[in-house]
Design goal:
This protein has about 300 residues and is α+β, with helices and mostly antiparallel strands. It has a single domain (about 5-295), classed as q2cbj1_9rhob like domain (Jelly Rolls), CATH 2.60.120.620. About 20% of the residues lie in helices and about 25% in strands. It is built from 8 helices and 16 strands. It has helices at about 5-10, 10-20, 30-45, 75-85, 85-95, 180-185, 285, 290; strands spanning about 20-25, 50-55, 65-70, 100-110, 115-120, 130, 135-140, 150, 200, 210-215, 220, 230-240, 245, 255, 275, 300. Helix 3 (about 30-45) packs antiparallel against helix 4. The relative contact order is 0.22.
């Protein structure tokens, strides 16, 4: 059984998140949630959707794929988003009175994958501004420390934004004019200056997760194991202070159909508030607009 979210998120854990920009939570998702997510991942791998990206060429070893917004299509992942403890965990860690759902992403590194996930932070990619924004990184396989996601402690408090670049070809995501260019810096070479930073990472067992701030720098090595997979579902959440953000050009993913303008609070049926749930309301009703086949949020990558 998974621990209740109110017990899993301690004051000490919240303080660690506020200080470091990241906190591990142990055994907060029970086997039923992990099995559900695992089935959803395999369904999406068998029939990839529009957000699926092969992140390396066929001549590179292993296989590294990402998949944006698979819950738009995959009922198992929808069920996890709507009914699992994830929304409450995110809200409590952010000290927010609400938690809204932005998106989900799959990160899959099959055995023998050499390609790393380069250092970056997430918020410059997304259409959301505000301090209350986090991701839950949930592996469904055991993740040893040497292939786990690593974080630069405290980097969410630097007050700096780094240029977002796409993984496969390392091209800049945005087109920059002179004003925009001053807002975004080139990413420093974290690996070359590791002695200047406190780098945090943890071995994780199924049921564990890591919650991290959208401005915390993070990256991960490849998966050199000959047999072990590394399948991860990330869900992205926002809190009370979130507003629709301005980016130099379309963010990733580029959502459409929500009718939000820059500076608007993130209040839309297509970005549902999933915690706290109103008494007597079925969680699926809260996500009806987002996940309905007729009205699902449109996006491109």
């Amino acid at each position: 059984m998974n621990a209740p979210a109110a017990e899993a998120v301690s004051e000490g854990g919240i303080l660690a998140f506020e200080r470091d920009g990241v906190v591990p939570l142990r055994q907060v998702f029970g086997r039923e949630w992990l099995e559900l997510v695992g089935r959803g991942i395999e369904r999406e791998l068998a029939h990839p959707g529009p957000g699926f990206v092969e992140q390396q060429s066929v001549d590179e070893p292993g296989r590294f794929v990402t998949d944006y917004c698979p819950a738009q299509r995959i009922p198992e992942l929808q069920e996890f988003v709507l009914r699992s403890p994830a929304a409450e965990l995110a809200g409590r860690v952010m000290r927010s009175s609400t938690a809204g759902f932005l998106m989900d992403v799959l990160w899959i590194k099959e055995p023998g994958t050499a390609k790393p996930s380069r250092w970056h932070h997430d918020q410059p990619y997304f259409c959301v501004d505000g301090r209350q924004m986090c991701s839950i990184w949930l592996p469904v396989d055991p993740v040893p420390a040497d292939v786990s996601l690593a974080f630069v402690a405290g980097s969410h408090r630097w007050g700096r934004l780094f240029r977002p670049r796409l993984t496969r070809f390392q091209q800049d995501l945005y087109r920059y004019d002179e004003v925009d260019a001053r807002a975004y810096e080139d990413m420093p070479d974290i690996d070359a200056e590791r002695d200047k930073h406190r780098i945090l990472s943890w071995a994780l067992e199924p049921g564990d997760c890591v919650v991290f701030h959208a401005l915390t720098l993070h990256g991960a090595p490849g998966n050199p194991s000959a047999t072990r997979r590394r399948r991860v579902l990330t869900t992205v959440w926002f809190g009370d202070d979130a507003i629709y953000g301005v980016r130099p050009s379309p963010p990733r993913p580029h959502f459409r159909g929500h009718a939000l303008e820059p500076g608007d609070p993130m209040r839309s049926e297509l970005f549902p508030r999933l915690w706290p749930r109103p008494a007597g309301v079925n969680p699926r009703a809260l996500g009806a607009a987002r996940f309905s086949a007729a009205t699902a949020l449109r996006f491109s990558i």
